[in-house]
Write a structure and sequence with these properties.
Hypothetical protein af1432, 15 helices, mainly alpha, globular, about 280 residues
């Protein structure tokens, strides 16, 4: 275990930057209804976010041939739920995108896989009515961020991990524990702590014993597991070639429709913002 590398990661997490405050404030309102006027006022407080929303509404991937000039019209055009998901996703990408590119690691595949997983976790929990889908979405979006923190703040260890995969097939989860002493999801948990995210989000991605979880955290974890397992089965933009699958019962779940909608949404987001 390289304790120096782990300490370097932990220390740097405090300086990693944070998503815009708009996303976090919207997340706080996820369990209650928020109307268009309230969301318009919230988004309009941040010029960067406002520009992002207008750009998205007028993009070739989301536009229906009409020019959107106001935040309120953009929200009506895209829908409140789409606005929430776009904000969480694009702001998260903005914090980590393009930092310390590494050989043998596809960042685009990573983000496609991450975004698709977040959408699937949200859809699964909505289908099961087991917890707030917005919270499940945010948790799933954060679930693998720890691997990017390793890449950025412990590049030597990250290179060793990706190199070793060529000769000794191992999942990134196993390799992170070997080289750092913790899983990368524990590091994702640390990122969530530094951003002061809601407890239900960060606790759901932390490695822990199921008996220690409350019903909400278990429901979020189940949504994330569903997403990871379905993405593994469909081989959608796999970034960890040696992910260790579990066993998930997909019976009576509209997996194909969920996956199709998730992949279409992800393609739109990536095409628009990966420039």
């Amino acid at each position: 275990m390289n304790e120096d590398a782990l300490q370097q990661i932990i220390w740097n997490i405090e300086h990693i930057g944070t998503p815009h405050n708009v996303s976090l404030r919207l997340l706080e309102k996820s369990s209650t209804e928020i109307d268009i006027d309230e969301m318009t006022a919230l988004i309009s407080q941040d010029a960067t976010v406002s520009a992002l929303i207008l750009k998205t509404a007028n993009s070739v991937h989301f536009s229906r041939g009409q020019r959107i000039k106001t935040i309120k019209n953009a929200i009506v055009h895209l829908g409140i739920e789409n606005i929430k998901k776009l904000l969480f996703a694009v702001e998260m990408i903005g914090v980590f995108k393009g930092r310390c590119a590494a050989e043998n690691f596809s960042e685009i595949d990573f983000w496609k896989h991450t975004l698709a997983g977040a959408i699937l976790a949200s859809k699964y929990t909505a289908f099961k009515k087991s917890c707030d889908p917005d919270v499940a979405y945010a948790a799933a979006l954060l679930r693998d961020i720890g691997i990017l923190a390793v890449r950025q703040f412990a590049p030597e260890e990250f290179e060793k991990m990706t190199t070793l995969q060529k000769t000794e097939p191992s999942s990134f989860k196993t390799l992170a524990k070997t080289f750092l002493g913790v899983s990368y999801r524990e590091i994702s948990y640390m990122v969530g702590l530094s951003w002061s995210l809601p407890r239900s989000i960060i606790e759901s991605i932390k490695d822990r014993i199921p008996s220690e979880m409350n019903s909400e955290i278990r429901a979020i974890r189940e949504g994330i597991l569903f997403a990871d397992e379905l993405l593994h089965v469909t081989k959608y933009c796999i970034w960890d070639l040696y992910y260790l699958p579990g066993s998930f019962d997909f019976h009576d779940i509209p997996c194909e429709a969920m996956h199709e909608e998730a992949s279409e949404t992800v393609d739109k987001i990536i095409q628009e913002f990966w420039k």
